[in-house]
Write a structure and sequence with these properties.
The chain is of the alpha+beta class. The chain is 51% helix and 21% strand. The chain is built from 6 helices and 7 strands. The strands form 2 sheets. A 5-stranded mixed sheet has the order 2-4-5-7-6, covered by helices on one side. Strands 1-3 form a two-stranded antiparallel ribbon. A hairpin with a 2-residue loop joins strand 4 and strand 5. The radius of gyration is 20 Å and the shape is globular. The two termini are 27 Å apart. The structure holds adenosine-5'-diphosphate and magnesium ion. The site of adenosine-5'-diphosphate has 21 residues, from helix 4 and helix 6.
């Protein structure tokens, strides 16, 4: 019974995310279309024309950002819970983020150990990606992202520590609230909400420790799963 409940919760989460994306993406697309429509008119001053085009591009970027924060990996038709080797998932995320890290002169260090959790690979990768991406974005002048994987008894702990801007107490409290972002038009404020939902559906929790000007550490705690016996 336990297994069935988790399974249906997981499907519910995926379809919720898909529905949310189509809802969220509609606004920037509509706005972008509106400004392009205005450009169709014959007499548009070059100055206005430029401004409208810039708004249309920004709105399209925003739509892209929303899709990225929500569903980089979600594949509803193939979602099912399986045993995941956490080091593989971490290395995958590091690989994906290496270009972004290079752009920010961020060095990524990983310490992993072989341990497993149960979950959907796509959603789990998405949740790690959202946290790691925020960490890199918080290091505007370069720094180090240290990802450490440990197993303590029946708990797996993944910590992601950055040397970035840090967060105030108030900002920490608002983490996971939809649309909470300090990145202006560059942020969606949806990444952490998605991450909290995924980790909670996996039976886990997230802890945050942060000091302004020093950096932030996220700790993801998840129930450990036994390694499958090799065939
Ligand atoms: P977004 O990245 O689009 O702003 P998120 O939901 O991913 O939205 O994050 C919400 C906010 O939480 C960010 O705008 C930022 O202010 C804060 N935040 C998250 N992670 C970090 C971090 N590692 N360092 C500093 N601030 C962070
Ligand atoms: Mg983010």
């Amino acid at each position: 019974l336990q297994q069935k409940v988790t399974q249906s919760e997981k499907l519910e989460l995926v379809s919720h995310l898909a529905a949310a994306v189509s809802h969220e993406v509609r606004n920037p697309l509509t706005a972008s279309r509106g400004f392009m429509q205005l450009l169709l008119e014959d007499e548009v001053e070059p100055e206005r024309r430029k401004r409208f085009l810039q708004i249309a591009i920004d709105e399209l970027d925003r739509a892209e950002g929303i899709i990225r924060d929500y569903l980089t990996f979600a594949k509803p038709e193939t979602e099912h819970t399986q045993t995941l080797y956490v080091p593989d998932e971490i290395h995958r995320v590091v690989e994906i983020l290496t270009p972004l890290a290079n752009m920010h002169t961020v060095h990524i260090l990983t310490h992993t150990t072989l341990c497993c959790v149960k979950g959907s690979p796509h959603l789990f990768t998405q949740s790690l990606l959202n946290i790691a991406k925020n960490a890199i974005e918080a290091m505007t002048e370069g720094g180090t992202l240290t990802i450490r994987l440990e197993q303590e008894g029946d708990k797996v702990c993944i910590s992601l520590a950055d040397t970035g801007t840090g967060m105030t107490e108030k900002q920490i409290q608002r983490l996971g609230e939809p649309y909470f972002s300090t990145k202006g038009t560059r942020g969606t404020g949806l990444g952490m909400m998605v991450t909290y939902r995924i980790i909670s559906a996996m039976g886990g929790q997230i802890q945050v420790n942060s000091t302004v000007g020093k950096g932030t550490t996220f700790r993801i705690l998840l129930p450990a799963s036994r390694q499958p016996v090799p065939l």
